[in-house]
Amino acid sequence: MSKPHTLTEDLYQKLVNQEDARACKAIDDSACREVPGNFMLTLLSQFLTQLGDALSNPKIILPWVLQSVAAPLYLFGLLVPIRESGSMIPQLVIASYVRRMPMRKGVWVLGSVLQALSIFGIGLSAWLLEGAVAGWSIIALLTLFSLSRGLCSVASKDVIGKTIPKRQRGQLSGWSSSAAGLITLGFGAALLLSDGSELGPLHYGLLMAGAGSLWLIAALVYSRVKEFPGETSGGKNGFLEAMKRLDLLRTDKPFRRFVTTRALMLCSALTAPYYVVLAQENLGSPAYLLGLFILASGAASLISGPFWGQFADVSSRRVLIVSAVMTSVLGIVIFAIATFKSAWLSLFWLMPLAYFLLTIAHQGVRIGRKTYVVDLAEGNKRTDYVSVSNTVIGIILLLMGLTGALGAVMDVSGIILLLSCLCLAGAGLALTLPETDD
After folding, report:
1. What are the pLDDT digits (tens) for 278-330?
2. For the residues of 134-155, what is the DSSP string, one character each?
3. How far is CA 217 from each of CA 24, 75, 335, rounded to the nearest angstrom?
4. Where do the structural domains in the chain lie, given as residue ranges?
5. pLDDT digit string, tens, across residues 55-81
6. In terms of Cα–Cα distance, which of 247, 233, 303 is closest to 92?
7. CA 45, 180, 308 angle in degrees (round to 5)?
8. pLDDT at 122 over 60
9. Nearest-angstrom CA–CA distance, 158 and 377
10. In whole angstroms, what is the distance from residue 260 CA to residue 262 CA?
11. Terminus-to-terminus CA distance in the chain, angstroms?
């Protein structure tokens, strides 16, 4: 007589939605028995951190914080590059030390706690400091936050690879994104009903305190994941081993193509701010417009997360292709509208709708590439893939972030077209990637 399912197992079965949800592909038997609990714990921790990200969004919230403390204007341009690249570039060295650890969830917990402390510090800076001192303090704390995020990135993919079977990893990312998108909808709706004029440093400080608390709770949840010891070979001198590991880009053709494809598909993220700028150029900067963009972002995550997640578990390669083509076609259409029907850009709903579609596409790129790299390798090779690709992508992201300088020679729609064409090239290269679901 089989034992009755627990609530955790029932929820897991409903979310995974497979005939044999417990079928464990690419993990050992001991880990297989713990899959339902580990799936739900990882899902909850990812949801909490993604919600924290939404409350400290470097494209929307942190610029408001800098503005509220009267920080110098030149600091605004540092937010997104530091937030994204700072977590990627050091990963090649970090991974060499992580490789020595048979149990790696503690690295994720440490990274989450450090992120919480960084966000708390940003909140205190917004509340107590002003001007350049406040601005540079926030930038320094954001750097610490981003470096701490790198710890989580290296550890999480390896822990997922040991605890969650293939064909379920994409759904894990999809459901957490969807749940965070639901909360973001509420935040956008609140903004839509308020012009935000009464918000001051104390309010932003409290908002950051709430966001930081989410990372602390996530660390507590993740600490309960039942991880089993893994490979520890290759944990030598961090920097020297990191330099040797870069040779993967020369010797491993499928991995090299993946990194190149991922670099071209960065355009799905880099294009987003220009959609907002194009809307502001034609409609100004009313509060309702900002609320519409936040609602569009939240709705896109809510709707598309589970779809892309299940699609990625069938073929993460095809997810990359479809979502990149979607990004490219949308950008080309926006360029055509700006060139031939520019009056349409004054329609208040057009650019938020375009941003909604772009966010759906970007979710596909993000979930597709995360699932692909986890499925592409096993053991410490997976850690190498994650760390090398993230370090290289971090450097490329900093360089591609300079596309804003093109504003001196072309208009915003032209930059959107250029980035969209690069993304289309990424879709073409993804056609040559091997499948990983075998």
Report:
1. 887 788 766 677 778 878 887 887 788 778 888 888 888 899 999 999 999 99
2. HHHHHHHHHHHHHHHHHHHHHH
3. 29, 30, 43
4. 30-224, 239-432
5. 887 766 776 677 678 777 667 656 777
6. 247
7. 95
8. yes
9. 10
10. 5
11. 34
